[in-house]
Amino acid sequence: MNSENRQNVRYEDIGRVDAAEICTLPGVLNDISLTGCKVHFPIPVTIDMEGDFELKIKPAQKSSEDPFVLVCHPQWVKDNNGETEIGFSILRSPDTPLLANYIEELKKNSDDPASVKDMIIDSKATFI
Questions:
Q1: Could you list the pLDDT tens digit for every one of the 128 residues in the chain?
Q2: 75 near 1, Cβ under 8 Å?
Q3: How far are the Cα atoms of 87, 96, 98, 124 from residue 38, in angstroms, in the given order?
Q4: Read out DSSP for 10-70?
């Protein structure tokens, strides 16, 4: 899905994603918004594009030990060098209010003028 078509801003994030119905190994969260997320799994997986799946997402930046339990629907699948990337839309779930609070934290952190990304002047390596 193109970023122009998205309803909400996606925030780059990392975390563990457990989705037993999709893959026995945990996936890795790439980005997240209030209405969707992108997850990659370390092995090729096959997914029913018509089904809804329960994802347990534990972002690295989240202080609590409990993951978000979200009901998600796959939007697209991409095989990438032996891994599988899946874009999900997030449906109304019991942990949607917790996700909304987390997204608000990510938004505040991205607006923070003291962000580490803004402090980097030039990301190119220079050898002397």
A1: 444 555 678 899 899 999 999 999 999 999 999 999 999 999 999 999 999 999 999 998 776 678 999 999 999 999 988 999 999 999 999 999 999 999 998 888 876 555 455 545 555 666 66
A2: yes
A3: 4, 17, 18, 27
A4: -EEEEEEEE-TTT-SS-EEEEEE-SSEEEEEESS-----TT--EEEEEEETT--SSSPEEE
Q: Which domains does the chain have, with CATH numbers?
A: 3-112 (2.40.10.220)
| 3-class secondary-structure state, position 95 | coil
For residue 3, give both structure tokens. 């970023």
